[in-house]
Amino acid sequence: MSNDSQGSVKGEAAMTLSPSGSASSQDELVQAGWSKCWSKRENRPYYFNRFTNQSLWEVPVLGQHDVISDPLGLNAAPAEGGDNNLGNGQRKRRVSEEQGAGPNSFKRSKVEPTTPISPSTPGVKPWSSAPEEKQSQSTTIYWDLDIQTNAVIRERPPANHLPPHPEIELQRAQLVTKLRQHYHELCYQREGIDPPRESFNRWLLERKVIDKGHDPLLPSDCDPVISPSMFREVMNDIPIRLSRIKYKEEARKLLFKYAEAAKKMIDSRNASPESRKVVKWNAEDTMSWLRRDHSASKEDYMDRLEHLRQQCGPHVAAVAKDSVEGICSKIYHISAEYSRRLRHAHLSLLQDSPTDITHQSLQPAVSPEQQRLVYCYPVRLALPSPAQPRVELHFENDVACLRFRGEMVKVNRGHFSKLELLYRYSCIDDPRFEKFLSRVWCLLKRYQVMFGSGVNEGTGLQGALPVSVFEALHRQFGVSFECFASPLNCYFKQFCSAFPDIDGFFGSRGPFLSFCPVSGSFEANPPFCEELMDAMVTHFEDLLERSNEPLSFMVFVPEWRDPVTPALSRMEGSRFLRHQLSVPAYEHEYRSGSQHLCKREEMYYKAVHGTAVLFLQNEAGFAKWAPTPERLAELLAAYRTSSSRASSLCSPGPAPPGDSASKTTERTQSVESPGSHDNNNNNNNNSSSSSSSSPQDKMSAV
């Protein structure tokens, strides 16, 4: 129908919505967004809600068809003889009626538009996540938000983070993008290389472990200024990046390129005479050998390359050291300047002076009442949230699209509904969901910026364990909490994550390194960053040392042995280690970090490295959740079930050569089965062979 005919009816909506209803109920229906319209196609009236995009032939009933008393639509039920929960077909028909019968009306109706959301509209949830029939058919649930926590902490005061705002988040996104571009330009201009893949993301991880600055994403107060992670990764790609080799000709070309690049680099830098002599002689000797010997095998070329790296590597690193340190220092200082700009803009937006905020940011002395033990709860902000601007929402098939100032972020319907539930469970300052869409936009934009804009960049940084493994961990070991997760990839509704300022509204308990549980059973699948994993182990041991209550951590880390990572080595030597097992590469999978956007067939990917599973428990935790053979068998069976179920959905990878259980190795330290226990309820094949860091990182939280 035309907009004119619809508008002519709206003025009389309060009088004609319900012939038998009271004037007050009619007013409430109008305030809830209902109006009476005329269908030219059916030649009869219908009722349309401008907030939820819902159309009804029957007169709407307050409390049944509106969302004032049920903001998530959990209690909605079809009216007798009515057709209230209309599917996509009926929504499409209404769109075509409004647009008129034209040749392009069918194509345009594939997008389900909704009215731009205004935060001034009280008391309603102004969208419809998905028709119930469509959701039940196409949405697979990868979480269980009904599980209650057993994590106990000491009561803590509200956090002093500045509340999120789309204007600030948009500025942060632009500045982080500029910082990435600076990093790319510096690497290319100074060293003639592209930045190592994911190295900027790992830099963010490593910096935030020690950062004392105010910005939730950009480092600004770190000591030392030079990042060990960024320095190591850039140096590993000098003079050229060494990728994995499959064929003999590739090995030959790589050997020639390395010799040529090393010689060119030593000639163009301020190197000592001894360094010039060693590098030139080895490079020329290698080129002579390549011209002379054409019958060498792939192994011969790789052995020669390793020998060349050993001879030339130290000299090349010496001449590149100052330049690479300059790159690291420059990026850090630009980041600190951007952080200062953002904070100034944020304080201006909040209309508070820096002195007032600084005064409020001082933590008060904790009284004895605040030291009481309580079950863990989401992060609360001390500062009230400012008024939020308008964020537009519409659905395109199974994808929710949120737009602010022309910047669009997307999330699939299932995860959008998950965010609704997490927000309902966790947020205490917005019972009417007036700020929900703006906070979802900030959340999605923050993680989008953190991942990066490259093809598949960041998809391995947020990988999660399979659902069947989480179920086994909860069933057998009482696990109810994730130490490293996000609102997008969490399985439980209680978790730690990177960004307490925005994630707290969706259930986050804050960064794990600042989280101090007294008791509980936890799963830890940390970002694969060496510095963060090392800090994690230090935190584990400190918590286990201080608590006499049952405390248990089930840790999942990559089994890197060449060389072994400090974190893995420390856990294997820890006095709190009760058991350790290893799941071989290609015989298990992770859920994709882009699970909130990817297709169903891309949800899982095979792990290209083995995963070490370690059980760190104090005495009380060991007595309650001991890794007995029966429980371990259930955990391994969950891995097998997950692998077989997802084999048709995983990213391509070699088929397992046999039963994964037969190849799973275990190591036990001082395991003594008690008589009875409480049974409480990255796929990157182009990694650098020269890097001591993993080619796959998974960022869930800092």
UniProtKB/TrEMBL annotation:
<dbReference type="GO" id="GO:0032259">
    <property type="term" value="P:methylation"/>
</dbReference>
<dbReference type="InterPro" id="IPR001202">
    <property type="entry name" value="WW_dom"/>
</dbReference>
<dbReference type="InterPro" id="IPR022035">
    <property type="entry name" value="PCIF1_WW"/>
</dbReference>
<dbReference type="GO" id="GO:0099122">
    <property type="term" value="F:RNA polymerase II C-terminal domain binding"/>
</dbReference>
<feature type="domain" description="WW">
    <location>
        <begin position="28"/>
        <end position="62"/>
    </location>
</feature>
<feature type="compositionally biased region" description="Polar residues">
    <location>
        <begin position="17"/>
        <end position="28"/>
    </location>
</feature>
<feature type="region of interest" description="Disordered">
    <location>
        <begin position="1"/>
        <end position="31"/>
    </location>
</feature>
<feature type="region of interest" description="Disordered">
    <location>
        <begin position="645"/>
        <end position="702"/>
    </location>
</feature>
<dbReference type="Pfam" id="PF00397">
    <property type="entry name" value="WW"/>
</dbReference>
<keyword id="KW-0808">Transferase</keyword>
<dbReference type="GO" id="GO:0016422">
    <property type="term" value="F:mRNA (2'-O-methyladenosine-N6-)-methyltransferase activity"/>
</dbReference>
<dbReference type="InterPro" id="IPR036020">
    <property type="entry name" value="WW_dom_sf"/>
</dbReference>
<dbReference type="InterPro" id="IPR039881">
    <property type="entry name" value="PCIF1-like"/>
</dbReference>
<keyword id="KW-0489">Methyltransferase</keyword>
<dbReference type="Pfam" id="PF12237">
    <property type="entry name" value="PCIF1_WW"/>
</dbReference>
<feature type="compositionally biased region" description="Polar residues">
    <location>
        <begin position="667"/>
        <end position="678"/>
    </location>
</feature>
<feature type="compositionally biased region" description="Low complexity">
    <location>
        <begin position="645"/>
        <end position="662"/>
    </location>
</feature>
<keyword id="KW-0539">Nucleus</keyword>
<comment type="similarity">
    <text>Belongs to the CAPAM family.</text>
</comment>
<dbReference type="GO" id="GO:0005634">
    <property type="term" value="C:nucleus"/>
</dbReference>
<dbReference type="InterPro" id="IPR029048">
    <property type="entry name" value="HSP70_C_sf"/>
</dbReference>
<feature type="region of interest" description="Disordered">
    <location>
        <begin position="73"/>
        <end position="139"/>
    </location>
</feature>
<feature type="compositionally biased region" description="Low complexity">
    <location>
        <begin position="679"/>
        <end position="694"/>
    </location>
</feature>
<protein>
    <recommendedName>
        <fullName>mRNA (2'-O-methyladenosine-N(6)-)-methyltransferase</fullName>
        <ecNumber>2.1.1.62</ecNumber>
    </recommendedName>
</protein>
